[in-house]
Write a structure and sequence with these properties.
The complex is a heterodimer of chains A (about 325) and B (about 140).
Chain A lengths: L5 H21 L21 E2 L5 E2 L17 E12 L2 E12 L3 E12 L8 E14 L12 E15 L21 E13 L4 E10 L18 E13 L2 E8 L13 E11 L2 E9 L5 H4 L6 E10 L1
Chain B lengths: L2 H17 L9 H5 L1 H17 L13 H15 L11 H5 L6 H17 L4 H11 L3 H4 L3
Helix pairs in contact in B: 3-4, 3-6, 6-7
The chains are: A mainly beta (about 325), B mainly alpha (about 140).
């Protein structure tokens, strides 16, 4: 297993390039310096950004490292995602960097607004900081092996609290802990395995996540029903229609820690289009299940439209 | 979530979905793509794309393109179940002096995808050929 050596390799690479200075760099063609982005991956293979900001599709992270940099280089992207559900709206925006096709770092902010029911006007937000490390395999090249590309990830999430609660007659409601959450911060751990079955034009991805996040963390972490993390399953299956266009479905189990939220699994059906290595669009029909039904008195599923734009290299 | 449900989601569902991708019985990929005429056309388009591609054309500066086209045809024909023998060298020794990096390998793959498309090979068949070629990354990328 090469993993423990690589962060050292990265540091050595960066230090060497910095110490050698611009004069030495200028003598190298762009693709010969690890500091120069090579935008060398095939279209689609950088993935998109999920609602937690990690490289993946819409709801589920992939083992692929984000950005169009290959193992010789690096890449980065920014994303803006809007999800309009029946009574809620989620906006997610952030940046992500992938280095050496090995390490991915992301920072994302999610803002979740109530746009219907008696709570119309309420808003809650969170920050998510993610780290993902590829530990084994290549989802595309290893067509002669059964083994998927495998990555481990960690996401530190900090809920920023509830705002505009006075407007809906709930002055003093400022934190999900007042709804029963055990904490306003939490850390998710996950393992993601992704395989492209090229001969079938299929991408298959499965994730096990160890989490106590309520509604991705938007309603805090842990709660009156359970304070502890649980293992949740997530998956993506996508059919690749052209070099730049794929359609697929995703599924994401979520814990049910809060008495005030009949939290259920989320799923979506998406279409993803990599217009170029610099711009990608994902559109989806998404269902997040019932959200805060005992509070809003609306038990209907929160279904709606998902639209995400990614720009980068 | 119980273990049974986990098994169904992890193993059974992907397996069922994969079964939909099983190839048409009896016909080789070579025949499905259109045989010699189409494959030679694809290789010709591929060679043109490579020569026009500033990301990689310098690695072909001293190449004999007629030989390149013939050897590629033989290799693709042989790999896809056609009646050909590949008479070229193995992938590692034929590429090692070129110091191909990952971006260059992927640029080649992209030019081949485009060439296959220009020859009229449908995308899902392009992927079937690519599935046979992709593992060569381990021998071709030496930088």
């Amino acid at each position: 297993m090469r993993l423990p050596r690589l962060p050292v390799g990265l540091v050595v690479f960066v230090l060497c390039n910095v110490l050698c200075g611009h004069a030495a760099l200028a003598q190298l063609a762009p693709y010969e310096s690890v500091l120069a982005p090579d935008s060398g991956k095939l279209p689609l293979t950088a993935g998109f950004n999920d609602v937690d900001g990690a490289g993946g599709a819409g709801l589920v992270p992939w083992a692929l490292i984000t950005g169009y940099g290959t193992a010789d280089s690096w890449g980065a992207n920014a994303h803006y995602t809007a999800v309009q559900l029946r009574d809620f709206r989620l906006r997610s925006y952030g940046v992500a960097v992938g280095a050496l096709d090995r390490i991915e770092i992301s920072a994302t902010r999610d803002v979740f607004d109530v746009t219907g029911t008696a709570l119309n006007g309420l808003s809650v937000a969170q920050h998510i900081y993610g780290l993902k490390v590829r530990v084994y395999g290549d989802a595309v090249y290893d067509q002669d092996s059964w083994a998927p590309q495998t990555a481990v990830g960690v996401e530190y999430k900090k809920n920023s609290g509830i705002s505009d609660s006075a407007a809906v007659g709930l002055p003093g409601l400022v934190s999900p802990t007042q709804l029963g959450a055990a904490s306003d911060t939490g850390t998710d751990w996950y393992v993601s395995a992704t395989k492209v079955y090229l001969a079938q034009s299929l991408l298959v991805n499965a994730v096990l996540r160890y989490t106590k996040a309520n509604e991705f963390g938007l309603l805090g972490f842990g709660g009156d029903r359970s304070r502890n993390r649980s293992v949740e399953f997530e998956a993506t299956v996508a059919y690749i229609l052209t070099r730049k266009f794929a359609v697929g479905v995703e599924y994401r189990d979520k814990p049910h820690n809060l008495g005030v939220d009949n939290e259920r699994a989320a799923w979506d059906a998406f279409a993803a289009w990599t217009i170029s290595r610099n711009i990608s669009i994902v559109g989806a029909f998404v269902s997040l299940g019932s959200i805060l039904a005992p509070v809003t008195q609306q038990s209907r599923d929160q279904n709606g439209a998902y639209l995400s734009l990614q720009v980068g290299f | 979530m119980n273990a049974c449900g986990l098994f169904i989601r992890l193993v059974a569902v992907p397996s069922l979905l994969l079964m939909g991708g099983v190839a048409h019985a009896g016909k080789t990929l070579y025949e499905a793509m259109g045989g010699e005429t189409v494959l030679r056309s694809a290789v010709a388009h591929f060679a043109d794309n490579v020569v026009a591609d500033d990301r990689i054309n310098f690695t072909f500066a001293e190449a004999n393109m007629d030989k390149f086209r013939q050897l590629l045809f033989e290799q693709f024909c042989n790999l896809s179940g056609g009646p050909c023998q590949y008479t070229g060298r193995d992938m590692r020794s034929s590429h090692v002096k070129l110091h191909i990096n990952n971006a260059e390998f992927n640029a080649l793959a992209e030019d081949l995808y485009i060439g296959l498309g220009q020859a009229g090979v449908p995308y899902r068949l392009q992927n079937k050929l690519m599935a046979l070629l992709a593992p060569m990354q381990h021998e071709i990328v030496t930088k």
